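User: quick one, fold this
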Amino acid sequence: MRIDYRWTVAALALAVAGCNKPEAVQAPAGGTAAAPAVPAPAGQDWTETVAATPEGGFRMGNPAARVKLIEYGALTCPHCAAFEKEASGPLAEMVRSGNVSWEFRTFLLNGIDVPVSLLARCQGPGPFFKLIEQVYAEQQSWIAKLQTMTPAQQSQIQAVPPEQQPRAVAEAAGLITFFGARGLPESKAIACLTDKAAFTPLEQITKNGVDKDAVTGTPAFVINGQPVKDVASWDMLKPKLDAALAG
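Assistant:
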């Protein structure tokens, strides 16, 4: 799978093409028996227990959960946004039980994914899941700012040195203001957008997704180390999680 890191508005078409197109399936009848909940540490909730992983993602939940879910998601991907809207509530309940952990890995489909991923990760693990939920909820709005740029505005950004382009795209999309309203100071946002080292884990996540977990589009999922094929919606994923919990 060739990943195009160019920031250009045309790359948004690649983002849509690179997204899986989910087809809802009927969940199996009967369901599975609920596994006993695993208590979180005193005074905590597993959904509030978020940590960085060695692979570069952020994991919510019990690190020793019986079922370990990994999601590869591109923040420009509309199908990922649809999954987030459907799944975040019920998946959080599974995580809250202590039996399921949810790791999110920011996958790059195109260059526009770079600045938004850098900003989403900039404040570390704590606010990450809430931030990506809000990024997806407002996805059409901030992407529209890029889609309506004039050719002259696009050319102006393309003329910026490559290491400065993430900042330029973030400013054009209103993302620095967006994250600023959610607790990220402008100075820290700019530092994250211009930190060359911050790009490395994003590139590594994408490379590992393609090479190790057979990711060909987003959203893509791995359950207990095994890639889940042909699953791109909550209706399709939940039976897989139920089966893993019952196993």
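User: anything notable?
Assistant: The two ends are 33 Å apart (CA to CA).
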